[in-house]
Specification:
The chain has about 800 residues and is an all-alpha fold. The chain has helices spanning about 15-20, 30-60, 85-130, 140-180, 185-220, 225-275, 285-320, 325, 330-335, 335-355, 365-390, 415-440, 445-450, 455-470, 475-505, 505-530, 535-580, 590-630, 645-660, 665-680, 680-720, 725-730, 745-780, 785-790; strands at about 405, 410.
């Protein structure tokens, strides 16, 4: 047969005819392919073992502010409190935050359990009906899809719970670490970062093991053939659906909780009563600290677990549609999981760079060390991916794609697959650093927003909104280039690999994400324990860097969600192509497809409106309760008074509001593709998914970056960067010693207003849009056969039009 150069990435009909001269390019399973399962299992176990090791290091710090051998700065009596009283207060707050977080997750996971129990039989029956042949329902496919769904949902719950427990376990220890007068920076940073590492490595290890064990067990129910592997990957897609469903409740419910408490505490405490951040007299301050854990930790963990599960399922499903990949053996099919597995080892090595090789010794080191994590992990990961691609993926020796393999109608290759993963890996880094530019007060955009506070809250909000819209430009261009390049090289399989590339350093990204909330809680505990101001200065500096890196993490999460959603869209189209027996082209000029596109583009706005209003309603109830307590006990407004508020009532308000308000947004996302597919058919669903992904990614980026910029503009002003301006424009804020009382200025109050408005944008609506992109797409993949079974894919209503 004629040989074809690998530079070509399209398959002409003549090439397809050449493949009849040899079966699947004479590809056979290699020895390396047989070793892939062991690699996946071993790396998963390494991730879990390393998380246990990190947890032991964190637990070695005693909950005692006087636990160091040297005299403590934090042990000096402050405001009449001695060390014993401060320590007792620390233990009391630690217990209160732990109890509040446990109570919320217990209530949330009860609702999730009810959802799983109801969804399992409904999903199984629908899929069994949709897969029926000659009138006979495919109960095997239905029940196994349901089992995959349950496994994914339970794994997501476990990962979120572990993350939350580790965060509340570590926050007070981070405070204690900051009390060390000589090594406070290193001890406090390492405690928070290792706490994040516990979640990052445990989540990735558990996730990869759960998915692979599920695959290995369900594999026995299907024949080792092209069709058998397609059916296997179809039912395993339920794993991603289970994970993403729980992520929806975690992200929305946790986001409403944390921002209802945060906004309520800020409005009633800081804005109205001029109380300091995390003042122990503010009734909402414990609820605010609890929210950091259930929203920013448990919610983020479930979100990124869902991304991993869905990206893996999309890559496996599209990969199984290639006879050449199937012919190369089980290891070639498992290539996506080996990428994630090797990523665990790479992140493990990188972790020691931050805590041992180049630790934080002063404030200026923090951002450098965190950003180095992203660069080093990406650099180490690149050659590893190349080695995996060469070892595991097939290379035809004859036919129309000699030296490569067909994926759909595209002639791809090992190098092409490597490049797809590299596009996602380095594209994620670039998106993260662009996000940093727009949200860190080290750069001009946030400084401009802070300067706008000189003329009031209105101009601050105008500048912040403009910054958010502008910040979407570069990430969207980068994502567009990644999508074009990956699809050109390997079709939808390439897009799925790009998504996995962006998530390949997930353990490091999660460590950085969780680090921020732990430091935030540590600062709150330091304030409420009335420790020495130097302790709060350390935790505030750590938290400020955490805000920036959290924004970078959100950039990663949004970018990967876009690629995952598009990869799942490709998996959906692949399932439709299998049913149609040929290539399927989505025609946007088709009226029903374009109608779906418009509706899909609208859904992120509807979803955001629901979540934003929910935060507003819950925050309103919180403000009323806090004001009631201030009126009932005026002693709460007297500095250093021993009276303490009723924290539990505020925790209950946030818990009840979040659990009630998370149902409607979740139902909107879950029911939209189902109703669209059943009523209007598969063509409408393709438009719905395209519109939702295109609209969500831009709205998520702008919302998250707007809120992040307002937050850091407030921190930029509070650290004294604009004291000269404040002293000149507001001389009444200058005390008798010539010191500017920054937090009593109108400029700072304008910044607080912007930060308060931005809270639900950056921590509720923006991050939750990640789930919207992915969950709608995975639902469409799982229920594709159901849609096709309704009037041959034309739907109930569309067939009448």
């Amino acid at each position: 047969p004629p040989q074809t150069p690998l530079a070509s990435t399209s398959a002409a009909p003549s090439r397809l005819m050449d493949d009849f001269a040899c079966v699947n390019g004479n590809i056979t399973a290699s020895d390396a392919s047989e070793a892939a399962p062991a690699l996946i299992i071993v790396t998963g176990l390494i991730g879990i073992a390393f998380s246990v090791f990190l947890l032991k290091l964190v637990s070695s710090i005693a909950l005692d502010v006087a636990s160091n051998n040297e005299p403590l700065v934090g042990s000096e009596p402050i405001n009449g409190a001695d060390v014993a009283e401060q320590n007792a207060r620390l233990l009391e707050l630690y217990a209160a935050i732990t109890t509040g977080a446990n109570a919320f997750l217990r209530s949330e996971y009860k609702l999730c359990g009810i959802f799983i129990v109801l969804a399992f039989p409904a999903m199984s029956v629908l899929i069994a009906w949709g897969d029926k042949e000659d009138g006979k329902w495919e109960w095997k496919n239905g029940w196994l899809s349901g089992v995959s769904f349950v496994v994914g949902a339970i794994t997501s719950i476990v990962c979120g719970y572990i993350g939350m427990r580790v965060a509340v376990f570590s926050n007070a220890r981070c405070t204690v670490g900051a009390c060390d007068p000589s090594k406070g920076w290193t001890r406090s940073f390492n405690t928070a970062f290792r706490a994040g590492g516990v979640m990052g490595f445990s989540l990735t290890g558990i996730a990869i093991l759960a998915l692979y064990i599920l695959l290995a067990i369900l594999r026995t129910a299907f024949p080792d053939s092209d069709e058998g592997y397609k059916q296997l990957m179809d039912v395993v897609a339920g794993f991603g659906l289970g994970g993403s469903s729980i992520a929806m409740f975690g992200r929305v419910g946790g986001g409403i909780y944390t921002k209802a408490a945060d906004v309520g505490a800020d409005l009633a405490g800081k804005v109205v009563q001029d109380l300091p951040e995390d003042d122990p007299h503010n009734p909402g301050t414990i609820a605010d600290n609890v929210g950091d854990n259930v929203g920013d930790v448990a919610g983020m963990g479930s979100d990124l677990f869902g991304s991993f599960g869905e990206a893996s399922c999309a890559a496996l499903l599209v990969g199984a549609s290639s006879p050449m990949i199937v012919a190369a053996g089980w290891g070639a099919l498992m290539f996506p999981l080996t990428v994630s597995g090797v990523g665990i080892v790479v992140c493990l090595i990188t972790n020691f760079v931050a805590t041992d090789l180049s630790p934080v010794r002063k404030e200026a080191d923090i951002e450098r060390v965190l950003k180095t994590q992203l660069l080093v992990s990406s650099l180490l990961m690149t050659p590893c991916v190349y080695g995996l691609a060469v070892a595991l993926l097939p290379s035809a020796t004859c036919g129309g794609c000699t030296g490569g393999f067909y994926i759909g109608s595209i002639c791809s290759s090992r190098i092409n697959a490597f490049l797809c993963v590299a596009f996602g890996l380095w594209g994620g880094c670039l998106i993260g650093f662009v996000t940093e530019y727009y949200t860190s007060f080290s750069y001009s955009p946030v400084k401009e927003v802070a300067n706008a506070c000189r003329t009031g809250a209105a101009t601050n909000i105008i500048y912040g909104l403009a910054l958010g819209y502008k910040s979407a430009i570069v990430p969207v261009f980068l994502l567009s280039l990644i999508v074009y390049g990956a699809h050109t090289l390997a079709g939808f399989y390439g897009i799925a690999l790009a998504a996995l590339g962006m998530l390949s350093t997930l353990a490091t990204c999660l460590a950085i994400d969780v680090y921020g909330p732990v430091c935030d809680n540590a600062g709150g505990i330091a304030e409420m324990c009335e420790l020495h101001p130097s302790v709060r200065e350390k935790t505030d500096a750590l938290d400020a860097a955490g805000n920036t890196t959290a924004a970078i993490g959100k950039g990663f999460a949004i970018g990967s969600a876009c690629l995952v959603g598009l990869a799942l869209f490709g998996a959906f189209v692949t399932r439709l192509e299998d049913a149609a027996g040929g290539d399927l082209h989505v025609d946007l000029l088709d009226p029903i497809t374009f109608a779906g596109l418009l509706v899909g583009a609208m859904l992120p706005y509807w979803f955001s409106a629901m979540t934003m209003k929910s935060v507003g309603m819950a925050a309103n109830a919180m403000v009323i309760e806090i004001k009631r307590q201030f009126d009932a006990n005026p002693n709460l407004l007297i500095p250093n008074h021993p009276d303490r508020p009723d924290y539990d009532t505020c925790i209950k308000i946030s818990t009840d509001a979040s659990l009630q308000e998370m149902i409607a947004p979740g139902a909107l996302v879950m029911l939209s593709p189902v109703l669209c597919g059943v009523c209007f058919g598969t063509r409408c669903v393709t438009g719905l998914l395209a519109g939702a992904i295109a609209s969500s990614v831009q709205m998520a980026i702008s919302s998250s970056n707007t809120g992040g910029a307002w937050d850091n503009a407030k921190k930029y002003i509070s650290k004294g960067a604009m004291d000269a301006v404040i002293g000149e424009e507001e001389p009444e804020t200058v005390d008798n010693t010539g010191k500017v009382q920054t937090k009593k200025s109108q400029i700072f109050k304008a910044a607080v207003t912007g930060d308060t408005v931005g809270d639900p944008l950056k921590d509720t609506s923006g991050p939750a849009l990640n789930i919207l992109m992915k969950l709608m797409a995975i639902i469409s993949v799982v229920f594709a056969d159901v849609f096709l079974a309704v009037n041959k894919g034309d739907g109930l209503i569309a067939s009448w039009l």
